[in-house]
Design a protein that fits this description.
Blueprint: H1 9-28, H2 34-85, H3 92-113, H4 121-152, H5 154-162, H6 167-191, H7 200-207, H8 212-245, H9 260-272
Helix pairs in contact: 1-2, 2-3, 2-4, 3-4, 3-8, 4-6, 4-8, 5-6, 6-8, 7-8
Length: 276
């Protein structure tokens, strides 16, 4: 099987036309996100070009120790990003970083210890990136939902506390709801893998000329590790949340004000009513 040609810079420029088209549609629809689309596309290009140079040096000279250090950097950055999404929650960035670290470390150590993946920088960095990204998304959604649950369910939580329940017991129903919300996308994507779309790892291997059966075997490992990483990160975030949402006397702390843009969207939703 012959591998297809890799797109050149002309192909990259052509694909950028799709981003411009998306911006035009966003402007005409008055969505207010055209600038965000352009910023995201520009940042992605710059970051990927920079990371290509870093990875080339890492693969050539870094070894396993360099790969481990790079994974730590990715975890820290992912924790900051996830925490920023849930900025109404006290100590959100610390909690998110701990959750991402737990999901990533448990998954990667298991894969390496049992010989599922090779302990080489060329393998550890891309696989670790997928694991860390999934853990980040699960942590961000969990903490975001926990903040919303704490705010909207404050009266019910304080009522349970007044009946003598501990902070963790009073907040348990809200943690379960947040975890279900965070894990539903990962579970659903695992259910329909191969039926609706061919995931990235499998597609990349097939494009590289690998036999489809071999590609499927690798993709199964990828889906299982992402499911585990997301679940472990979300559960860790849910377990740590009561420690930052409640004080030493089991009182629910005041939450930080929502960002202006988020608050504006909520205000607009209140005025317009629920979506049809």
């Amino acid at each position: 099987m012959t591998a297809p040609a890799v797109p050149g810079w002309a192909g990259v420029a052509t694909s950028a036309v799709l981003v411009v088209f998306a911006c035009v549609v966003a402007v005409r629809a008055k969505l207010g996100i055209a600038r965000d689309i352009l910023t995201a596309a520009s940042r992605a290009a710059v970051q990927l070009l920079a990371i290509a140079a870093v990875l080339a040096a890492l693969f050539a000279h870094g070894g396993v120790a360099g790969a481990a250090g790079w994974l730590v950097i990715m975890v820290v950055i992912a924790g900051q990003v996830a925490g920023r999404r849930a900025r109404t929650v006290p100590a959100a960035r610390i909690t998110a970083t701990a959750a991402v670290a737990a999901g990533t470390a448990a998954t990667m150590v298991t894969l390496v210890a049992f010989g599922v993946i090779e302990a080489r920088a060329l393998v550890l960095v891309p696989v670790g990136g997928m694991v860390t990204s999934t853990a980040m998304q699960a942590s961000a959604v969990t903490l975001l939902r926990l903040g919303e649950e704490a705010e909207s369910g404050r009266a019910a939580i304080e009522a349970r506390l007044s009946l003598g329940l501990t902070a963790r017991e009073a907040f348990a129903p809200h943690i379960r709801r947040a975890l279900r919300t965070a894990l539903v996308p990962i579970i659903d994507s695992t259910k329909v893998v191969g039926l609706i779309s061919l995931p990235g790892a499998m597609t990349g291997l097939i494009l590289a000329g690998v036999d489809p059966v071999t590609a499927i075997r690798y993709q199964i490992v990828v889906m299982y590790m992402l499911l585990a990483a997301g679940a472990l990160a979300a559960i860790t975030a849910g377990y740590l949340a009561p420690a930052v949402l409640f004080d030493d006397a089991d009182r629910l702390r005041p939450l930080r004000p929502a960002p202006k843009r988020t608050q504006q969207r909520k205000d607009d939703q209140d005025r317009l009513g629920p979506d049809p």
